[in-house]
Design goal:
Blueprint (H helix, E strand, L loop, with lengths): L19 E10 H11 L9 H6 L9 H16 L5 E8 L10 E14 L4 E10 L2 E12 L2
Antiparallel strand pairs: 1-3, 2-5, 3-4, 4-5
Length: about 150
Amino acid sequence: MSDHGRPGLPSAAELVVGAQVASGRVSVDRARLVRYAGASGDFNPIHWNERVATSVGLPGVIAHGMWTMGAAVTVVTDWLGDPGAVVDYQVRFTRPVPVPDPGDVGVDVVATVGAVDPEARTARIDLTVSVEGARVLGKAQAVVRLA
């Protein structure tokens, strides 16, 4: 156990390619989008104004791509117990995440082991990130440091 009562990082020997290591759902509503806009400085009206979003051909207000990317990787950091263990993280933005008003939308994340490098003490964790069954991030991969 670490100093904080959490198990330590997994070792290469503990991980099996193809095995699911974590999953979760992160919800987003319009209020969260406004807070994220303030924190990120991204005040593009497609993230808060229905009229503007639909006028440019979107289905409605959409979540910030960077919010979606960041929210998805929290499933991995929660599993690891150490956000600093993520040494690389990349995604392709494949589909917007429409956010209803009122209400929220759930972003579902499943993390599986894509590759293990025992010599480098790293693993590639592949993320399937979807909303209502449709993938919203493609080739979402995090390289994580192992014990």
